[in-house]
Amino acid sequence: MKILLCSPIVPTKELGASKVLIELMEEMQKLGWLCKLLSPTEICPDILSYAGIEYQHKYVEALKNYLHQYASEYDVVDYDHLYLPYPISEFSHSTLFVARSVLLVHHFETIHIPIPNNLRGRIANLIKGASRKAMVEGWIKSATLTIQEADIVNVSNNDDKAELIRLGISNEKICVIPYGLSQSRRVLFDAVASDPPVEPTVAFVGTFAPRKGSNDFPKIVQYISEATPNVKFRLMGASYKTEKEVLGNFDRRLRNKIEVISNFDPEELPDLLASCSVGIFPSYLEGFGFGVLEMLAASLPVIAYDTPGPPMMLPSEYLVSRGDIKAMSEKVINLLNNQQELIAARLWAKQQSQEFSWQHIAQITSETYLRCLEFKNSGN
What we know:
single chain, alpha/beta, Rossmann fold, 6-stranded parallel sheet, 12 strands, globular
């Protein structure tokens, strides 16, 4: 079997959208698939000179032209749900076309993402708010057409499926397949002890940005610090901000409690999490939430917002309503101040993470695609 995985961004394991494709491809190859990961620069060499809507338009056109020429060479074409808003009848009739959502854009219609909580953010929203709204509307239009035309839609959480069904997409057309950890990374995380560290430390893995809850962090840190004076915080993965910019969001009296690690190799993450006690994930919208899974694998129970993504991994007692800063803080405080409960929660976290392995997910993906391909080519 031959599969083409189309990445709308230059593939790297540092960015979630292409990380999914890289790690899935590695496991699919072990199952005997012949896989190709298609970079946008391969089909449009000058694409990195564009941004925003122009980038989208250039990539959409380039992908269409490439698939007109080469789709027939593959059994399956797996592409982002934003970028193929054309009748599928234009392309190879024997190829299975799979629209993949790493972050379903339709959620932006119903989930409000806070603007940056500073003067610059408010001014930028006044100046660019209308154009951003138009851009999102363009995304949703393109995604809707792409999904309607695809043979099947691959999403990573149940909220995505529910949203697509609400929009009129057939239940039978949607497959929910989450993400996981590779065996090589799992070994590194398994080396992290489940016993709580002596010094209470709250971890976060993810970009420090409004969608990920950056506006809510200052209050969360304040609430937890007031109840647990010796607590520390470790924010990892804030690569779009400097340490100074991140710390500038916090009260000066609390900055000495916060460690910002903005650049690290993914293989270093287990060691960085080893001295942490619990995790928080105040993201307003996810496709899956790799940061949650990585913290769980390092024995950290994670408190997250009840929003698309994290509920695939977390039970209801570890979820709070979006934006409920106080409830999130209280759940963290309760864990930090109850040693027996924390020990049990850390053992559970490690075990829960075992449910999400790329090896298993590649097997499910393979079986799903083979079944759908057979069904399509049977004439139905």
